[in-house]
Q: What sequence folds into this?
């Protein structure tokens, strides 16, 4: 195959890659393992290795015919392991090991090592995983998101009554608040606060647990939704296509119980078909969420999957809560699913189709735009 590449060649390239491409699926490392780190420190984001899901992805790649798939932990040994196993491309299913902004560490290491990867670049990883940074960008771009302020542990005790910024933003607001870590996951350490006075304790608690910034925003009392969005290449019924629009799917409502103010963490209660429901085509909100997700994908120049969480305010307007840079990709089973995989069957896609779509989209992107800097991969196509 010469220097030129176009999408029509993708199936042929994938056939070659199945035989030759050496893929590492990387999951979060465990800092307590010997040689994993130099000094153990703190993870402001609640730690999880995502190893089970990394194995789901790896097994699915193997089922798809990729012959050289490795599952590797993300820690200080990563570079050596990638080198020893002659890895050509990594799939980052990791939230990092420890330290601040852990979600961007692994893509930053990949950039430094020159190993291409399925995952967000370091800047986007950090923006997406820091709710305040993401919301600032959303505000700048004119996307709907609730007003908010942040409070860093070094600023000491938070007192709503004495805080000028708080008074400016929320002086006339009489509703409840939500206080949450700027970098969190699985609805952990989220506080519903009725009276602004009680924000002091909620913020202190978030600081104590995370040693990181806390975010305060109004509590949005309306319906809650998710939408997943990823890149262009899709595989279904044995055929690859590449529409011009990003792929928006799994547009679903998270069903809240009568007394459930915030969606209970999947760490505490599995996500089942009973807790989520695909939004019906007849509901205008479905198209609205799809449009928002596609616009975010383009405006942030994303190049792999995110899941956006949103909620309606008291007037029924959608407000974006956050984006998840590494949404759960668990293989759906009888009694448990993931918010991203739930809507695949509606699209006529299997879990394998989806995994193949994600890696193929990345390879298509690299072959189209970065051919010259992935010569170790293009070399596989030459002979
Ligand atoms: N401003 C808000 N108003 C109402 N509910 C909120 C608000 N912010 C968060 N929540 C509730 O808390 C849950 C978790 O919040 P959010 O999605 O921002 O953080 P997370 O812990 O990173 O999420 P995830 O569980 O998706 O990883 C939401 O699913 C929602 O139910
Ligand atoms: Mg969320």
A:
């Amino acid at each position: 195959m010469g220097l030129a590449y176009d999408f029509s060649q993708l199936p042929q390239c994938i056939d070659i890659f199945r035989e030759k491409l050496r893929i590492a699926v990387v999951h979060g490392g465990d800092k307590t393992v010997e040689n994993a780190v130099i000094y153990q420190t703190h993870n402001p984001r609640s730690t999880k290795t995502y190893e089970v899901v990394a194995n789901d992805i790896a097994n699915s790649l193997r089922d798809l015919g990729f012959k050289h798939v490795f599952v590797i932990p993300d820690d200080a040994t990563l570079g050596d392991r990638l080198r020893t196993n002659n890895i050509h491309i990594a799939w980052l299913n990791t939230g990092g090991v420890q330290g601040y902004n852990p979600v961007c560490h692994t893509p930053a290491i990949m950039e430094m090592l020159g190993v291409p990867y399925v995952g967000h670049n370091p800047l986007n990883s950090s923006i997406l995983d820091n709710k305040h940074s993401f919301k600032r960008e959303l505000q700048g771009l004119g996307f709907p998101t609730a007003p908010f302020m942040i409070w860093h542990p070094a600023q000491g005790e938070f007192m709503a009554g004495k805080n000028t910024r708080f008074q400016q933003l929320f002086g006339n607001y009489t509703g409840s608040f939500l206080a949450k870590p700027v970098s969190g996951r699985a609805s952990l350490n989220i506080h519903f606060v009725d009276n602004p006075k009680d924000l002091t304790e909620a913020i202190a608690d978030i600081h104590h647990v995370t040693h990181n910034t806390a975010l305060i925003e109004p509590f949005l009392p309306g319906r809650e939704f998710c939408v997943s969005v990823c890149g262009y290449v899709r595989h279904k019924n044995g055929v690859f296509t590449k529409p011009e629009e990003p792929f928006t799917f799994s547009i679903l409502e998270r069903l809240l119980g009568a007394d459930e103010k915030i969606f209970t963490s999947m760490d505490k209660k599995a996500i089942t078909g009973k807790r989520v429901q695909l939004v019906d085509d007849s509901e205008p909100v479905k198209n609205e969420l799809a449009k928002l997700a596609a616009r975010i994908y383009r405006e942030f120049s994303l190049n792999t999957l995110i899941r956006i969480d949103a909620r309606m305010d008291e007037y029924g307007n959608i407000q974006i809560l956050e984006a998840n840079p590494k949404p759960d990709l668990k293989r759906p089973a009888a009694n448990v699913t993931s918010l991203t995989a739930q809507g695949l069957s509606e699209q006529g896609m299997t879990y394998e189709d989806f995994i193949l779509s994600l890696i193929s989209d990345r390879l298509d992107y690299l072959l189209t735009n970065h051919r010259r800097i992935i010569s170790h991969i293009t070399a596989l196509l030459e002979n």
In short: The radius of gyration is 21 Å. Residues 146, 178, 180, 184-188, 190, 217, 219-220, 224, 262-263, 309, 311, 321-322, 324 surround adenosine-5'-triphosphate (ligand 1) (CB under 6 Å). The chain has eleven helices and 15 strands.
